[in-house]
Amino acid sequence: MARLVIVSNRVPAYGDRNQQSGGLAVALDEALKQETLWFGWSGQIAAETGRMPALTQRRAVTLATIDLGAEDYRRFYVGFANSSLWPLFHSRLGLMEYSREDYQGYRAVNRQFAAALSPLLRPDDIVWIHDYHLIPLARELRELGHANRLGFFLHIPFPPASVFDALPCARALICDLAACDLVGFQTEEDSDNFLSCAARLAGATLGAEGRFRLDEADSRSTAIPVGIDAGRFARQAERAANSENANRMRESLSGRRLIVGVDRLDYSKGLPNRFEAYSRLLEQYPEHRLKVSYLQVTPRSRRDVGEYQVLKRNLDRQAGKINGKFAEFDWVPLRYMTRGLPRATLAGFYRTASVGLVTPLRDGMNLVAKEYVAAQDPQDPGVLVLSRFAGAAAHMKEAIVVNPYDPDEVAEAINDALRMPGDERRARWQALYATVNRDSAAAWCRRFLEELSGNGPPLVKPAEAA
Ligand code: F6P
């Protein structure tokens, strides 16, 4: 069986109890049991970007990491990846900043990643590269002479050509992706956007089933939704519902119903719009005052990016205003925290909550939507309010699907969710759970690797992938 090599900016935080694993680590961790090399950034900033990866072993996974030099961190991570690509790919052109120096820094780090990974690669390894930080990596590996099967998966949305075209190096990035055998996206819309960019901006010839030809190389684009292990998360939630934290939460609610939102502190998540919607709920449906409590868990990330600091200040102010306006001496309407909570604690809170709010302005998939559904008590499930601009909405039609830009529509949806009769909640939940269970992390991983390996040897044993 061929060895799998995962390359991503973040690697799993094995052994560090203070670190939360990212969505990618969770998805892959649950799906991969075979011999794997996982290469990426150590999360440390040093004087210079490392050349020799540090190796650690965790069961079947060898972690190989390098530090980023301070200047590279600034240009690659803070600059091009998170101030140019992130806003662009989320269709927020007004927030995009671009500088040639940052772009050169981004390419340089991808070259250094390739150089550090190169000596660890075996000729028959299957290499799976993840996300927008590492778009040029496949080309860099090809230039070092690696003829391995190379796949790339984009976890965030891919914008329409009219938006992508605003990036001065748009064509170069398309050509980089064409160095892969397979380019994966979360939704058909993302894959179609990419193919239309490849044709319009880079002159690619399009074929059937996502095939495209560019610079005399053949490649393929595909859409496979990332997922979770629904059964495992459901069991975790059932256990967590009786945990000390869940008991403390229920006690603190004093019989009130819980509304929950869990998002990284990021402008793509639409948190100001969501807070405004909650404020309108309390304004327009005063019967819910004193009867509900909204918990928003919002761990901070990318603190060195200016836009995230602005957002933090605005949200702090907005949360203060809502509580100032509606709180009673014995009721705090909005519980807003900018620290993360362990996944197990969240699982218990999801199960306790009558409403799950997932209303990003744009999102690649959004696994919180899936986890909220998986965590519910089948006899008495809560209701998911889901943005139509989250990739998850492509399949989770039985949620209350909203336009997050319209606070009145979202307020109405929360009101409908709070009033929804048990029969309707159960019927919607059953359909949603079936979808979440079908589009699992294991199915995502297996499908991508099958499509990448073509007719090659199996990469995941069927029993492991089930
Ligand atoms: O979803 C995109 C993503 O970059 C993930 O890869 C990552 O786990 C998450 O956002 C957190 O972002 P960062 O690594 O910048 O803290």
CATH superfamily of the largest domain: Glycogen Phosphorylase B
The count of β-strands is: 16
The gyration radius over C-alpha positions equals: 22 Å
**CATH architecture descriptor of the largest domain:** 3-Layer(aba) Sandwich
Low-confidence stretches: 455-466
Q: Which CATH class of the largest domain is shown?
A: Alpha Beta
Strand content: 15-25%
Q: Which whole number gives the mean pLDDT?
A: 94
Percentage of residues in helical conformation: 40-55%
Summarize the structure.
The chain is of the alpha/beta class. It contains 17 helices and 16 strands. The chain folds into 2 domains: 4-227 and 442-465, 3-Layer(aba) Sandwich (Rossmann fold); 230-438, Glycogen Phosphorylase B (Rossmann fold, 3-Layer(aba) Sandwich), CATH 3.40.50.
Please explain how this structure is put together.
The protein is of the alpha/beta class and 466 residues long. The protein folds into 2 domains: 4-227 and 442-465, Glycogen Phosphorylase B (Rossmann fold, 3-Layer(aba) Sandwich); 230-438, Rossmann fold, CATH 3.40.50. The chain is 44% helix and 19% strand. The strands form 2 sheets. A 10-stranded mixed sheet has the order 3-4-2-1-5-6-7-10-9-8, with helices on both faces. Strands 13-12-11-14-15-16 form a 6-stranded parallel sheet, with helices on both faces. Bound molecules: 6-O-phosphono-beta-D-fructofuranose (F6P). 6-O-phosphono-beta-D-fructofuranose (F6P) binds next to α1.
